[in-house]
Design brief:
The protein is mainly α. The protein is built from 10 helices and 3 strands. Strands 1-2-3 form a 3-stranded antiparallel beta sheet. Helix 2 packs antiparallel against helix 4. The longest helix is centred in the middle third of the chain and has 32 residues. It starts with a helix and ends with a strand.
Length: 211
């Protein structure tokens, strides 16, 4: 029996987690409606998480409990940061770096869990764990792509030359092509999306500067 059926409390929070991925798309909608920068990482992350979460829920995937707990924990820290920003508090830059680091750690652990699940199926048999080979392939591809994108974001936001000067390039479309002449204060950004913190603080116009 799947953990969702065996433990009603876990099943309830899993159900809420899956449903929460739909309103999260509202972030993207608001960005588009306000004609603000929409980067590839933002919409790719939201759409793929939504599709994978709903797909996994139909299978009652065993490894999902790990992914859900990690996501809840990281998002609790991240949205607390956004709440402080919205209340005009200014958390130190180290907090934003910590959030991005937590997200990168989440991706590494996600890949490790999928590798472990694959090995378990190979040794104990395909019916030994409630997870399909297809789910493992989709999940590890998703987590690995997230790791690459968040690592690139971390470098550009905190380690690059512009980041050390307090500025970094922003992207103004859904593609991965950065504008050549605009930079944004990196202290306001976190790893989930360099647009969300702007929305929280309502400071998009005041932060964009010419190079």
């Amino acid at each position: 029996m799947a953990f969702i059926e065996h433990d009603r409390v876990s099943g309830f929070w899993t159900w809420l987690f899956v449903l929460s991925k739909l309103p999260e798309l509202g972030d993207t909608v608001f960005i588009v409606l306000r004609k603000q920068p929409l980067i590839f990482l933002h919409w790719y992350h939201h759409i793929t998480v939504l599709m994978y979460s709903w797909f996994s829920y139909t299978e009652y995937t065993a490894s999902a409990r790990w992914f859900i707990v990690m996501n809840y924990c990281v998002h609790s820290v991240m949205y607390s940061y956004y709440a402080l920003r919205a209340l005009n508090f200014k958390p130190p830059r180290s907090i934003a770096m910590l959030i991005t680091t937590l997200q990168l750690t989440q991706m590494v652990v996600g890949c490790a869990i999928n590798i472990w699940a694959h090995g378990f199926l190979q040794t104990a048999g395909k019916n030994s764990c409630n997870i399909s080979e297809m789910n493992i392939k989709l999940s590890i591809a998703m987590y690995f792509s997230y790791f690459v994108l968040f690592a690139r974001f971390f470098y550009k936001t905190y380690l690059s030359t512009n980041a050390r000067k307090g500025k970094r390039p922003i992207q103004v479309t859904a593609s991965s092509t950065a504008t050549s002449g605009q930079y944004i204060d990196s202290s306001t950004l976190t790893g989930k999306s360099d647009v969300q913190s702007l929305l929280a603080g309502g400071q998009a116009n005041s932060k964009i500067k010419a190079q």
